[in-house]
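Why do we bother with holo predictions? Because pocket geometry can differ from the apo form. Keep that in mind while you read this record for zinc ion.
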Amino acid sequence: MASARVPEALRQKVAEQARYRCGYCLRSEELAGMPMTIEHLVPIAEGGLSVEENLWLACNRCNGFKGALTSARDPDIGDTVPLFNPRLDVWVEHFEWNSDGTLIIGKTPRGRATVVALQLNNPEIVVARRLWVSAGWWPPQE
Ligand SMILES: [Zn+2]
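The structure, written out:
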């Protein structure tokens, strides 16, 4: 059975690659006020390994909603599609911010499915984003 244990040096390397922010909602460790979680892109339950290629950072919230999911339904088309992969996919190709910077809009089937499955616009985070926008800290610049 694969181990979820990620050596500290590898964790640090992945954190640097992810720029210390969640690969899905882009919240930084500074704004979260806590370290991000190491995310297994292919879940351990699906045979995913604790190797660099299978790891990225996620906030506790996105990590919790993702769970063991690797695909979800696109709400517009209805097809089940792979979730956004923050290591392989480019965020701005699949998502954009709404005009006031508080909502993540899915631009592609993969983006839309990920917004719904990971609840990227849950009410609590939208309130926080509104505060961050008013402080000039949000949305993040790519
Ligand atoms: Zn997140």
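The beta strands are 37-40, 55-58, 71-73, 80-82, 95-97, 104-106.
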